[in-house]
Design a protein that fits this description.
336 residues; 9-stranded mixed β-sheet; 3-stranded antiparallel β-sheet
Length: 336
């Protein structure tokens, strides 16, 4: 629970006269694809040339392989899948998801649908009835935190785009920023640039998102109090310690874009690396029933996640194992 001196939610005041510990936001953070200031100021550090980013020598994006698991990745995928039964699929489906089997001839070739035998699965949801934020929500968190997982599940349910600022243990950049903005190193921490609201406490964040960008309801598995937290913690057991500790990295000037959703074990593996390397990323949530699946299908001719677009290098690629290799080769300071 947050102490009384640090309220759970703050609304940004217009005059910039209060100290940064009292303000919901302190210091400018440019949002969007154009540019995002991501490296905290280091006043005692000597000036240096800005880092240049390029794909690894000879890099070639892999061809997407439907339902393929790279050799050596099987145990990682299995461990990342433990969250699905422990959380009863929360984060796999968007709000109001429903599905029906129809004859394949009823679905046009240019429309996304899951093939199932000789039929196709037609998906619908309530997302198109929900308010959509104009700017991405900003969340400071890390992968191995059960409280953060709860909020990520709600992000998937509501099909939100979120700009994530990873805060792994010992991370030098965004953990201090959270302390500066809100007064505590506590996670998750959310900032909504559309309303000026910022807050700690996962349950408060979930309720806020449900009321502001959903239909006001919170899914059952996110409304069970202590049981929700326990099962969210159990969901991390298969990947214990992963996505929690900082590995020295070069932070690029623009966030990496990733199409993913919380219920996918392949997406979880890719996000673990993004978090460990403290790489800001704009996540386009696309759980089952998401309208973004059709948009993705029209753009790429298929639907498969995770998929990243890195504006710092121009790389666009599928396949979680290769994405992890690419991120390590491009941004880690210590190559394994």
């Amino acid at each position: 629970m947050a102490p009384a001196a640090a309220p759970a939610a703050l609304r940004c005041p217009p005059p910039p006269l209060l100290s940064c510990r009292r303000m919901a936001r302190a210091g400018p953070v440019t949002r969007g694809r154009a540019a995002v200031a991501v490296r905290a100021a280091q006043p005692d550090a000597p000036a240096s040339e800005p880092a240049e980013f390029a794909p690894p020598p000879g890099f070639k994006p892999p061809e997407p392989k439907k339902f393929g698991v790279k050799s050596g990745q099987q145990w990682s995928v299995l461990g990342a899948s433990l969250g699905i039964p422990f959380r009863l699929g929360t984060g796999v489906f968007v709000l109001g998801f429903s599905a029906s089997f129809v004859d394949a001839s009823e679905i046009p070739a240019d429309q996304y649908a899951l093939d199932f035998g000789g039929s196709k699965v037609k998906e619908t949801s309530k997302i198109d009835q929900c308010p959509r934020p104009e700017k991405p929500i900003e969340i400071y968190e890390f992968e191995g935190c059960p409280f953060c997982r709860k909020v990520r599940e709600m992000v998937s349910v509501l099909d939100l785009d979120v700009l994530y600022y990873p805060c792994p243990q010992n991370g030098p950049t965004f953990r201090p920023k959270v302390l500066e903005m809100g007064g505590k190193k506590q996670f998750p921490y959310m900032v909504d640039p559309n309303t000026g609201v910022s807050m700690y406490e996962s349950d408060d964040i979930i309720k806020y998102l449900a009321e502001k960008y959903g239909d006001g309801t919170v899914p059952l598995m996110l409304s069970l109090g202590l049981l929700t937290t326990i099962t969210a913690g159990l969901a991390t057991l298969g990947r214990i310690g992963k996505g929690s500790s900082y590995r020295a990295s070069k932070i690029p000037p623009q966030p990496i874009e990733i199409w993913a959703y919380e219920g996918s074990p392949f997406c979880k593996l890719a996000r673990e690396t993004l978090v460990e390397l403290e790489l800001p990323h704009l996540l386009h949530s696309c759980a089952r029933g998401s309208p973004k699946r059709q948009e993705f299908f029209e753009k790429n001719g298929l639907f498969q996640v995770p998929y990243i677009e890195d504006p710092n290098t121009g790389v666009k690629m599928f396949e979680s194992a290769e994405i992890i290799e690419y991120l390590n080769a491009t941004y880690s300071l210590y190559k394994s």
